[in-house]
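Q: Sequence in, structure out?
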Amino acid sequence: MIKNNAVISLALCVALVFCFTTSVYAAGDNSDDIRVKAIISGLKVEGKELLEPEVSLLLEKGFTEEEIKILDFDIRKVANLIVTRNMSTDEIEILKNGFVNDRPKDPEITSRNQVGKSLEEVNMPDTLSYKYDLSNSINATDTGVHLALFTQPSYKFYEYTGFANLGSVYAYTSNTRPYVMFGAHGTTGSIDAGVVYYKEHNAWRVFMSNGQPNGWYDGIYEANISKGSNIYLNLRCAGNYVQIIVRDASTWSIIDEQSVYMGSSFTTNPTNLELVRENTLAQTNRVDDGSYLRNVRWSDVYLYSLTQTTPAAMSHMKSSRSGFYVYSGRYMYGETPSANQYISASGLNYNGETSSLEY
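A: Exactly. Output:
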């Protein structure tokens, strides 16, 4: 009997301890929920009510409430980088310092203060990407080779990010301009944005080009990016503006950025917006001159809508495109049907690949 009473007493103690610890954990959860909701309420980014998992993760990883509020529209990207790259505590600290302390400019202010140039003024060949609007076919003959992916507008993607190793590059003359870039095509316009190689500077630079008479925009700092660099590119369409931000992939500091007003197609909830990722070896006058863009490696490429953050996948891409030809799967190439002879590529998995273009 004594033995049975002891067993019963022990069971009651265990039960009481279990109930106590469970209630404390629940209270902690509720407190955390309140804290997360308070942070989210102070954010400006659209779709903020869907950010609870990301905000919770950042709190768990040591971000302060103020730091999370500073990140605002970068919350999803930073949380995604921590998880997908399985970052250590030290790596997270570097990431946090880069994104919190080096914030991009307001797109409206940046756009207002920029003066565009003509393609002739900057001696740039026509990349043609902005002419691939959503209704008209194009003729890419004699402009250079393109290797590209086009998203399906039905997914409502408004943002692209990805890492790019710029490989090796050679331009015989300034007639040839290698590009590694994103793009966006909507009903109110189209734009290319990324980095372009300048032979005269022996370096890459950030650019945007919307195809208007004075529609070429250098990065606001006109910063040189060394050949072979590792960079993190971010194209974002929001509030009628398109913004390109290029960060150093090791320090996360901004190398350069630019913003251009593009009209009502370019929002975080687009109705008919196509995003593009592309490498191009463009020329003012088409000639096989030995120029090349070798071993450019894209990796960890992500697409963003208001409801999802997802690795770029085959299902997200168009299977055909006016003016383009199928290279492999849903990878498209442009110029002429025989232009695939200038392209070599491997690891074509839509959220990354290694490719070379060579004349």
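The longest strand covers residues 292-304.
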